Amino acid sequence: LIVASLVTAIIGATLQLQKLASLDSAGRQYARESYADKSAFLVPFALSKAVCNLLVGGLADRFGRKRVAVAGFGVGILAPIIVLGAPTRGERGWSAVVFSSLFLGASQGLAWTAMILTMMDLCGPAARGFASGLSETIGYTAIAVFADVYGTIERDAVACAWSNGSGPAPGSECLARSGGKCAVSDDWKSQCLGECVCEGYTREPF
């Protein structure tokens, strides 16, 4: 039960780190402007997760919980590999980030759900509800904790600069809203998209 709980926490942590990095890189690194464009990576994530959730029960009964969980982790490894190999600017880079979320969703659908089934087996038929709730609590607690961890990693790994040499000079509205500063911050200014460019979201193994 302890091992299953630890694995669930790891899944939640890796999920949070990559999702936040994808969301922040959308505007700060790839200059995506609309909310729909910034959150486009959630569509393949949700679709692949839903399909895997539908299939995982039968797969786990046929091949075993452990094998399905390992397969889920294996699929999940592809997500950061694709992101790390993507261009750091432009449409192709952002398309790679969106595509990588397909494997992230499949990983959660396979590995996390397999862990829920494993915990149900360990707790017994009379405590299936408890096992499911425990797994969700552990996973989402890890997601909450690693939101703060992500902030620390972001401050150390991401560097921002005005794109005078490769793009538009900072406009007056951007300068006014940002106080003349080009840096990672919680109050990111949409007026600075494409002008204050941050890099590092797709270079570090989140």
* Strand line-up in the sheet with most strands: 1-2
Shape: elongated
- Measured between the Cα atoms of the first and last residue, the distance is 27 Å
CATH hierarchy class name of the largest domain: Mainly Alpha
The helix-and-strand class reads: mainly alpha
Domain module tally: 2
CATH topology descriptor of the largest domain: Growth Hormone, Chain: A
Give me the CATH superfamily of the largest domain. MFS general substrate transporter like domains
Number of strands: 2
Number of helices: 7
Poorly predicted sequence stretches spanning 5 or more consecutive residues? none
Helix content: 55-70%
Compressed to H and E, one letter per element, the order equals HHHHHHEHE
Supply the CATH architecture of the largest domain.
Up-down Bundle
Radius of gyration: 19 Å
Keywords: Cell membrane, Membrane, Signal, Transmembrane, Transmembrane helix, Transport
Membrane topology: Multi-pass membrane protein
Subcellular location: Cell membrane
Transmembrane segments: 68-87, 93-118
Task: Describe the protein's architecture and organization.
The protein is mainly α and 206 residues long. The protein has two domains: 2-157, MFS general substrate transporter like domains (Growth Hormone, Chain: A); 158-200, no CATH class. Helix content is 70%, strand content 4%. It has a two-stranded antiparallel ribbon with strand order 1-2. The chain is elongated, with a radius of gyration of 19 Å. The model has no long low-confidence stretch (mean pLDDT 85). This is Major facilitator superfamily (MFS) profile domain-containing protein.
